[in-house]
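In response to a reviewer's request, we include the raw inputs and outputs for one of the modeled complexes. The two entities were modeled together in a single run.
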Amino acid sequence: MEFRDLLLGLVLVWIAAKLAGEAMERIGQTAVLGELLAGVIIGPGVLGLVHESQALHALAELGALILLFEVGLESDLSDLLRAGLQATLVALVGVAAPFAVGYAIMDWLGHPALLAVFVGATFTATSVGITARVLRDLGRLQDAAAKVVLGAAVVDDILGLIILAVVTGVAQTGSVSLATVGLLSGKAIAFLVVAILVGIRLAPALVRWIGRMQARGTLVVYSVVFAAALAAVADLMGLATIIGAFAAGLILATTERRAHIEEHIKPVADLLVPVFFVTVGMKVQPAMLNPFAESTQFSLAILLTAVAVVSKLVAGLAVYQRGVRRWPVAVGMVPRGEVGLIFAGVGLVAGVIAEDLYSALIVVVMLTTFAAPPWLKALYRGAP
Amino acid sequence: MEFRDLLLGLVLVWIAAKLAGEAMERIGQTAVLGELLAGVIIGPGVLGLVHESQALHALAELGALILLFEVGLESDLSDLLRAGLQATLVALVGVAAPFAVGYAIMDWLGHPALLAVFVGATFTATSVGITARVLRDLGRLQDAAAKVVLGAAVVDDILGLIILAVVTGVAQTGSVSLATVGLLSGKAIAFLVVAILVGIRLAPALVRWIGRMQARGTLVVYSVVFAAALAAVADLMGLATIIGAFAAGLILATTERRAHIEEHIKPVADLLVPVFFVTVGMKVQPAMLNPFAESTQFSLAILLTAVAVVSKLVAGLAVYQRGVRRWPVAVGMVPRGEVGLIFAGVGLVAGVIAEDLYSALIVVVMLTTFAAPPWLKALYRGAP
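The model returned the following structure tokens for the whole complex.
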């Protein structure tokens, strides 16, 4: 009974994700960390309770798609335009420095260029969702520093997706030539620009047409159809599917039904996104990180985490405006989160990153995400 | 790129389902009919645009599970208790007569007992959701006849699930002995009684505990976990998974968070349930129903539809209360809808029903569902 196995697997995945996620939220962390840990524990690396079947894998991929669609839906293109030079500069430095340092260190350790590119790319990701939550909890969302971080986040998401598109293409062709990188960046930028410009013009008419339908559930189904269709187009162009889902979210965020779509996509995301995070965790092999084992990636994971944190703090140096505190901006950029996980996953599937390095990278993502909230809170303690 | 195929398949399934469903709603029919037709058209039988992959199949099965969970959530156990003798009698006759007639006619046509049992079982289903919508549109939901039909519906759903449990078990063992049938009925009834009695006692505490969680989406995830877990238990007992999902819905319908759960499960159902109906339609081979072909099941489909309609009308004879109009009750019981589809599907998967008979049965379900709304409207035309 194959369907029963899927049901039992899902029940375990969801219960583990919710319990661990709740525990993390209680200690002021993000639920995503708990879901990753839950995956490590129930996966083949520790308890071996759940294995990734084809159906579970498909649900996890749909989860990643819905996640990026939701991220796009919550981003505001006008925020991006308002973010201005200060936020853009922070985002650019926050992408360039970690990439350069990540690439350099792997190159220095004697790894091939393709692998070094993946590690660099994983380092570029920023997940300010976590930072935004901490700042909200502290009542600091109106601070000048908070506005810079949140503005930089939108720029960062877009830069990250372009890098991901390039990296995916590089993994497929296997070459890191300037021509390939140029072509792929061009395609990714062209896709985003064309999709967004055409989408923003057509979306209002489409949403009005959907509003005239009588059958139930029309809005949510067509929204997901839109995301899935753009994802498929991105894939056909040799880009990552999630760039299409993100573009679809950005476009629908400009329509009058945005709040309605967000509300209806939420329960779908609540069910599917944890499946993605748990299966990411399931691929981690904790044995490879055992500090007392002979062949260990433990020191590599610690080294990479330190590099990831320090290289991201450089973004704080890009703050030139008066009245914007440097440290909250720098620390706010540190958590790597979801996008970093997707980068590492693409590398694993493409065979560029081996399982032990993948495990180390997931640890980097988890530690950076774990470190940011208490650090930010400490920075604001006693501040006016 | 396997994930891209799934995305493209889903996009086609959703667009076809929504367009055909909308067209049906516009002519006063149910969207389900449109979704089935959409499946026939895009499936291998006609255009061959979409084929049922493993991932699509898993999504369709999850759709059937969510559908029955929703049906349970919308059912009211207190309605069932209030429905009283009149509604119970209508339901019993409305199940017994079609089963007997369906079995007899297939037996008379020389088919094996197991096949005759499946056809009889498919005939027992009632989908009063359609009737309820028509009565609501006509402003007749407070009629005595409407109350009898809606009360009978709940009894009918439960009887239908017990029959499905028995039929599933019979298909697995391959024997239709009195002992097997007795054992399976006993198991199904015991499962429902124990699940509901224990569930109703534990659910309020569980829902309160969930209410204390801070992470987002906790209620919807645990609700689906509950449905999936009971479905897996039912499956382990050799019953159909959907009986577990239905029981989970019935139980959660008694808690104070019922409306909240319904609201959050709706977008999930909106996305997954059409996948189920479309894949059901995809299995229909219209060529086998071509009236001009040599080897045709066309006359069988017409004969079975006539038998299915007439045998269900017998339920009207069970009306003994004064002031309850017989014909609206009888016609209100005619649509077979979702449950009939699931019966036929179980028979197909078990290899008891061949593809040509399956196609004929889907036609029976569609025609009975198609016939009821105009017939009901005609009955009420000019009525006080």
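As requested, we also summarize the result in words. The longest helix of chain A spans residues 178-211. The radius of gyration of chain A is 20 Å.
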